Amino acid sequence: MRFVTGGIMHETHTFSAEPTTPESFPTSRGDEYWAYAGTNHSPGGVIDGCRARGIELVPTLFCDGVATGTPDRTTFELLVGELCRRIGAALPADGVLLTLHGAMVAEGFPDAEAEIVRRVRALVGPDVPIAVTLDFHANLGAEMVAGCDVVTTYDTYPHVDGAARAQEAVDLLARTVRREIRPTMALAKPPLLPVPQAQFTARSPFKILFDRAHAIEAAGDALSITVAGGFAYSDVPEAGLGILVTTDDDRPAAERIAGELAELAWGLRGEMIVANRPPREAVAEAIAHPAGPVVLVDVGDNIGGGTPGDGTTLLAELLAQGAAEATIVVADRDAVTAAFAAGVGGELRAAVGGKTDRRHGDPVPIAGRVRLLCDGDWVHEGPEQAGVPAAMGPTAVVRVEGVNLVLTSRKSAPGDLQQLKSVGIDPARQKILVVKAAVRWRGGYAPITKHSIDVDTPGLGGVDLGRFAFRHLRRPIFPLDADASWRPPGSAAGGPV
Ligand SMILES: [Zn+2]
Predict the structure, then answer these.
(1) How far is the CA of 100 from the centre of ligand 1 (A)?
(2) How far is the CA of 228 from the centre of ligand 1 (A)?
(3) Are residues 284 and 400 in the same domain?
């Protein structure tokens, strides 16, 4: 059996002005792909899943971008054009495995994954099955689902099952090729738009949804069930929660199970509301807390969700309140350049952060001593993306009063302790750790965290969706429309109301 694989992953924050260019995507071509073997990421699971089953795998192109603004048409055509050329050159194949994100929006293509699947389908024809792996934050749409045969999404946030879900896709695709199964999918989209912070899968409401989904899978009533939390900051009709049920050639059962889970999710909507602490209160509480590390979650500047990573609200507050042994990472290329000019041991005077836009706090004037300069390269220790390299670009650690300020050239989502260890900071020994995240930080940080506070910092990761000018989203949708009502298809009143 011979599979071809490739993919483009991008979570698009359509309210972000941060440009997305081909350079925004660390890219692996051809044999470079094999470096993902053994990693806890979708391409790693594809490679390992094929090797374990004796399936020949032809890798083509994998582009893995950090979340930013909407890619323009030129960028999209460049990336998808190369992907399709390489897939075309690798044919014939018994099956195709696409590793995508699910919340990519490109100029002209509000459901970018649907367009990618449409073009790949045009290449391979109607008879070659296509499997797609997606992130938990996928905004599942009917067009993409109709274009492929198998879909899996991560069941976890933080995403600690990237490889496992890809292996599941390999397994379902191989069984489809052997005609052992006929995957049949039903998609349910209750009008729910939970923010990332409400999507921690070890806690209600998502834990309840996954417990039920896994019980149905274990009972053998479905081949695979996907609960995609959705990505609220993509202003597209498909944004929000999606439930996708795959059965073996049983459409009524798929529809019934999807409806049941959608109804369960709707009933839990009250638990999708979150409330965060004002920055001043949060910093005071962290300083007063008897034991560290205390994690201050900079929710407004959630890098993994497409914010710039240069938010300054908590840096300013830590300095104003005289915090000691606090660490914060801020993306600021100009400040890094100035730190390199000052050299290790030199003094850095600069206005730091707050430069990408006017939504994440003003630049903060600092004066500090440069402690360390490095290339910013490190490798994830996991659990999320274990084994995958990360590149922050030239990086400086500057001691500013009691604060260890880590300045990076490129934004880098927190969630892995190696990020700080690689710059000589032992996170377990810090009193306060600021993480520019919503939930992802828990992957690496949970074991060392004594206390955490979700902070209501300003920015594109803000949990009050009413602050965003949605134009394309389907309405009404909860919690944006607090009085939204809905009944599952097939109930007495039928359909969304
Ligand atoms: Zn995600």
Answers:
(1) 11
(2) 10
(3) yes
